[in-house]
Amino acid sequence: MTTTPDAPATAPFLVTSDAWKGLPRMEEYPACEGYIGDVYENPEGSSMCSGFFELKHTDEPLVYLYEYDEMKVVLEGEFLLENVDTGQKTVARAKDAIFFPKGSRIAFSTPSYALAFYAGDRNADLL
């Protein structure tokens, strides 16, 4: 399907290589080895942010409250996911797409390692 924009884009498209490398640790979760970093923070006034999330195996799950809608695509490994409020559980593996609605409290764990790309409808200061 091809669409024609109403007006041509004036801003250039962006490409960032190796943005998944050297992600900062999520210090607010000291019992977990979670790493996250935005690659693009509301570029050109967009309402979206995107980046990478990496998780290494630990005994404690990382429980995150989504204050915004977010989508993830698992690139490597697998995430064990549980909505701590509803009890919904699933495993998301490489190439799986995930949607987390605003208000979800999700427990993330992994048997060994997982890496995902995310895009969230949020301001950069919410990460």
From TrEMBL:
Top-level taxonomy: Bacteria, Bacillati, Actinomycetota, Actinomycetes, Propionibacteriales
InterPro entries in alphabetical order: EutQ, RmlC-like_jellyroll, RmlC_Cupin_sf
Pfam families on file: EutQ
Protein name stated in the entry: Ethanolamine utilization protein
